[in-house]
Design brief:
Helix content is 38%, strand content 30%. The radius of gyration is 30 Å and the shape is flat. The strands form 4 sheets. Strands 1, 2, 3, 8, 9, 10, 13, 14, 15 and 16 form a 10-stranded antiparallel sheet that branches. It has a 5-stranded mixed beta barrel with strand order 5-11-12-18-17. It has a two-stranded antiparallel sheet with strand order 6-7.
């Protein structure tokens, strides 16, 4: 085992040591057993991929239909400062600045700000362990060389040093002296309308609060670079030292510090003076909030774009699940010939190409089946695309047979 200590500017320390573990090279039956376990996982991933790909098409169609329904029914409000009874129960659109009744306040650090959310984030200077391993064979044994690196860093969660490979000299405290917390205003309004909990949750544009110009709280707390440091020497912290920063989301005051009130655009159901979720006939719940001034048309265009991105992300994810599932399932063929280097490499390449081709074709067929179930008019085109690789393969095979 080798140890490499080092000292870096700013008080950061780094230490490193290397360990080598040896074990007998696994036999054929042992490797076969490991491959069998991978086959079970592969079958599970293969089945899951069909579910993801098929249901994703129904979800995408339901969301698109709900958005079209919402756009056809939404009522833009003429004024956010008056409540019109005829809009009660309807899907409405409004834009305006956020408003709260009282500022959010942290008594421990004397921070006060008019916003929807105020977050206090606490970090502690701690030892952090990193591992990097490499496998190699030597004298008929399989060896693993692991390099353990220990750095001192600021972390927002307590790191349990008991799990380190070498705890001696790298001991972290078991708890922080101060806790992180997020405070949310009890009442958030736009004009006369109060926002539901779901709408308030969408206000997440956190920005760090500047502490420039603030005097120190006491002898044990120092203000430095937008942090409250619980140490007299923030440039050279010790393990266990704590620093605290604040961030805010959704400015809601009438003054200029630290900025004007956040303008938002909302689409939701009007229920007297409250904005609540709207249940569409197509199945989705409509309740949108954007942190900018948008028309109703622009809100629904953004939601349509988000739905398309989610649909393609799940399609790619479903294809990847299918590719991994097939690869794990057929890996047993690689294990059967892995003692022949040249054959092993050729079989490995062939298996990857096979998994790629089958996963692509079956994914397209599954998407087509989803479209056939949810969108029958377009399904035939996808089926034709899925058959292209098979047709091309057969067309190349026919000339070889004729020769």
């Amino acid at each position: 085992m080798h140890v490499f200590p080092a000292q870096y500017p700013g008080g950061e320390r780094r230490e490193q040591h290397v360990k080598v573990a040896s074990q007998a090279k696994p036999g054929f039956l042992e490797r076969l057993g490991e491959t069998t376990g991978g086959m079970v996982v592969g079958v599970g991933l293969f089945a899951l991929s069909f579910y993801v790909l098929f249901t994703n098409e129904g979800r995408a169609l339901r969301t698109a239909s709900s958005l079209d329904e919402g756009l056809s029914l939404v009522v833009p409000l003429d004024s956010i400062h008056s409540v019109e009874p005829q809009n009660n129960g309807k899907l409405v659109h409004l834009s305006g600045p956020l408003r709260t009744f009282q500022p959010l306040y942290d008594p421990n650090y004397r921070i006060s700000i008019h916003s929807v959310k105020l977050k206090r984030e606490v970090e502690m200077y701690q030892w952090v362990e990193y591992q990097e391993s490499r496998d190699y064979e030597e004298n008929g044994e399989r060896k693993t060389e692991t390099t353990y690196t220990y750095n001192t860093e600021w972390k927002s969660e307590v790191i349990n040093s008991r799990n380190f490979d070498k705890e001696i000299g790298h001991i972290n405290p078991s708890a922080m002296a101060v806790e992180s917390v997020t405070v949310v205003a009890p009442d958030v309004l736009v004009g006369r309308f109060s926002l539901s909990k779901g709408l308030v949750e969408k206000i997440d544009n956190f920005k760090k609060l500047s502490l420039v110009g603030l005097p120190p709280l006491d002898f044990f707390v120092t203000v430095h670079e937008n942090y409250f440091y619980h140490t007299q020497n923030p440039r050279h912290p010790e393990v266990g030292d704590v620093r605290v920063s604040f961030s805010y989301a959704g400015l809601s005051g009438e003054g200029n510090y630290p900025g004007p009130a956040q303008v938002v655009s909302i689409v939701a159901r009007q229920k007297d003076e409250r904005l609540v979720p709207y249940q569409s006939k197509s199945g989705d719940v409509l309740e949108f909030l954007y942190l900018e001034d948008l028309s109703a048309q622009e809100v629904f265009e953004k939601e349509h774009q988000s739905n398309k991105l989610k649909t393609w992300a799940l399609r790619v994810g479903g294809w990847l699940l299918m590719f991994l599932g097939i690869s794990l399932t057929i890996r047993i063929f690689h294990t059967l010939v892995d003692w022949l280097p040249l054959v092993r490499d050729l079989v490995s390449l062939g298996l990857k190409l096979f998994a790629l081709s089958v996963a692509t074709s079956l994914s397209l067929v599954t998407i087509a089946a989803g479209w056939l179930f949810y969108r029958p008019l377009v399904a035939s085109l996808l089926v034709a695309l899925a058959l292209v690789p098979i047709i091309l393969a057969r067309s190349k095979a026919s000339p070889k047979k004729n020769q």
